[in-house]
Amino acid sequence: MTIRQELEQMEEQYLSPYAALSARSRGRDRLEEPCDIRTVYQRDRDRIIHCKAFRRMKHKTQVFLAPEGDHYRTRLTHTLEVSQIARTIAKSLRLNEELTEAIALGHDLGHTPFGHSGEDVLNRICPDGFAHYEQSVRVVERLEKNGRGLNLTWEVRDGIRNHRTSGRPSTLEGAVVRLSDKIAYINHDIDDAIRAKMFRESDLPGEYTDVLGHSVRERLNALIHDVIQNSMDRPEIIMSLPMETAMKGLRKWMFENVYCSDIPKAEEAKAKQLIVFLYDYYCRYVERLPEEYRIMMEEQGEKKERVVCDYIAGMSDSYAIDLFEELFVPKAWKI
Fold first, then answer.
1. Residue 97: CA atoms inside 13 Å, Cβ hemisphere, count?
2. Per the similarity annotation, which family is this (predicted)?
3. Which of helix, strand or coil describes residue 114?
């Protein structure tokens, strides 16, 4: 018996009857020989961590565009915080921790440079539209490994696609990530906004903080415990009504006072225009795209606009800015 088979037996014996067992995965699009030491979800997690799109997230905006300071969240640090929260909940509920972690680590791989500002403008100018959760699936199915994709299991891809607010994950592990994403970003965005001196902790509405807690630590502790207590031994991932109402209220307050305010949006118009310029340029000069993207059009029949969108969406903030300068900013003449 291999180590993997022993791990699969341990899952059968220990995990909740509502957990997604590795041995019962719906599998991959392309058949592969099983690993002798890792379950299918462990392999998926490892593939995501080692892929290029995962590394690029360290230079992609979470909320604040080009912040001056080392401690503001990026898309990568957000992803790691989601993963940690989701793993804590999954472990407490005896769900499949490896599946939960793989979904969490991959849920934002398709995010654009400049955060949701980049997503909004690509959705507007790309004929087929753009949504980061669908792009995340496209990254793992199509764009990584020079067009071969990562060949992840169905359950991981389902969790990635359905992590959005309106999503309906097919596994409880996916549902844990969907809720953990909100718990993470509401709280770490408050932390970053306070760091940016947009408001103080005492400025948060008392009707919400009296329920959730009066610090990031208290709120995380309260929310995570509430999810665990209300989901234990149940076929669903839920929160108590008072906690859910307070979290939604605080989220709405954050949209009104942070996400849509002038400070994080100070450079938004420039960022959006930069993306429009890059999109128009590469739609006009597709021969200047990197080879892997040209192959997608010439040999695999992908639409020009879709491929240009893929290229831009994969850029980090700094790469997009440097490329814009190279293409559109005149350089000083030298002898």
1. 14
2. Belongs to the dGTPase family. Type 2 subfamily.
3. coil
Alpha carbon distance 197, 263 (integer Å): 10
What is the Cα–Cα distance from 130 to 118, expressed in whole angstroms?
10
- Measure the CA–CA gap between 5 and 13, rounded to whole angstroms: 13
Residue type present at position 169 = P
CA distances, 121 to each of 22, 107, 115 (Å): 39, 20, 11
pLDDT digits (tens, 9 = 90+) for 244-298: 999 999 999 999 998 777 666 667 889 999 999 999 999 999 999 999 999 999 9
Alpha-carbon span 333 to 322, nearest angstrom: 19
Whether 126 and 138 have beta carbons less than 8 Å apart is answered as no
Supply 332's token pair: 């000083």
Beta bridge partners, 61, equal: 74
Residues 106/48, Cβ–Cβ less than 8 Å: yes
* CB contact at 8 A, 156 and 99: yes
- Contacts of residue 174, defined as CB under 8 A and 6 or more positions apart, other chains included, come to 103, 155, 158, 159, 162, 163, 167
The answer to whether residues 74 and 66 touch, using CB atoms and an 8 Å cutoff, is no
Question: Which runs of consecutive H residues, i.e. helices, occur in the chain?
Answer: 3-14, 40-50, 52-56, 75-92, 97-106, 115-125, 132-138, 154-161, 172-195, 206-212, 216-231, 241-254, 268-284, 291-298, 304-313, 317-328
In sequence order, which residues have a C-beta less than 8 Å from that of residue 231 and are 6 or more positions away? Answer: 89, 93, 172, 237, 238
Are 59 and 319 within 8 A, CB to CB? yes
Written as one letter, the residue type at 160 is I
Residues 208 and 12: their CA atoms lie apart, in Å, by 41
- Read off the tokens for 165: 């607010």
Question: How confident is the model over 306-326, as pLDDT tens digits?
Answer: 999 999 999 999 999 999 999
- Distance linking the first and last C-alpha atoms of the chain: 71
DSSP designation for 35: P
